[in-house]
């Protein structure tokens, strides 16, 4: 009886997560249609995926002109959402390298860093079950003006992401947290009006950090 209750409990959790992820169905379909027309199946591909900080990086392809870059970011997403759409947003492109930005919205939604780490570990394992040669880069959760009150939790999450990367030879950790700081405070001039999403100065910082991982 106890075992049955445990199974029902976790089944309910999975069902809720799947229903939550369905809110992105239209956006994910639009991403697929976009790349159906421009994606070259014979070219080596780098996928950038995750939440709105990726989705709003509109010139990411221009930043890395020597590579075929696919941007499958979907705004408001959490790691569990990316896990749900893993084939649609990552695997179908047969990438050689994947950059993942998740955790920002998870922490804001009240999830504990350990749970986010476990969700991202599941994503990593699923990617490597499909293709064990894929290189994965975990982009650190960024600091922001709007969510600076949660900085302690973001720092703990980043420590867990870095440890996760260190434990796997094909996973790397890209620290965008510290370059976005001015001393002990977050830089004020690298965000748009909402204090959460970045302007071009913010994305320049990301480019400076990530270019060595791309090349």
UniProtKB/TrEMBL annotation:
Gene3D superfamilies: SGNH hydrolase. Keywords: Signal. Residues 1-20 form the signal peptide. Residues 54-205 form the SGNH hydrolase-type esterase domain. It comes from the Bacteria. InterPro entries: Ester_Hydrolysis_Enzymes, SGNH_hydro, SGNH_hydro_sf. It holds the Pfam family Lipase_GDSL_2. This is GDSL-type esterase/lipase family protein. The lineage of its organism: Bacteria, Pseudomonadati, Bacteroidota, Flavobacteriia, Flavobacteriales.
């Amino acid at each position: 009886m106890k075992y049955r209750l445990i199974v029902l409990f976790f089944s309910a959790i999975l069902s809720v997560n799947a229903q939550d992820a369905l809110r992105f169905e239209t956006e994910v379909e639009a991403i697929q249609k976009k790349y159906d027309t421009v994606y070259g199946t014979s070219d080596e591909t780098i996928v950038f995926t995750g939440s709105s900080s990726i989705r709003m990086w509109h010139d990411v392809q221009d930043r890395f002109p020597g590579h075929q870059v696919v941007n499958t970011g979907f705004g408001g997403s959490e790691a569990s959402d990316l896990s749900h759409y893993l084939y649609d947003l990552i695997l179908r492109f047969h990438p050689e390298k994947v950059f993942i930005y998740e955790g920002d919205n998870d922490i804001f939604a009240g999830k504990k860093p350990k749970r986010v780490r476990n969700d991202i570990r599941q994503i990593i394992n699923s990617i490597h079950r499909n293709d064990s040669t894929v290189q994965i880069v975990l982009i650190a959760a960024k600091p922001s003006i709007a969510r600076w009150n949660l900085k302690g939790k973001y720092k703990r999450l980043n420590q867990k992401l870095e440890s996760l990367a260190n434990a796997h030879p094909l996973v790397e950790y890209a620290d965008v947290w510290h370059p976005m700081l001015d001393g002990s405070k977050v830089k004020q001039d690298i965000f748009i009006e909402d204090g959460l999403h970045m302007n071009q100065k913010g994305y320049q910082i990301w480019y400076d950090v990530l270019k060595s991982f791309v090349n």
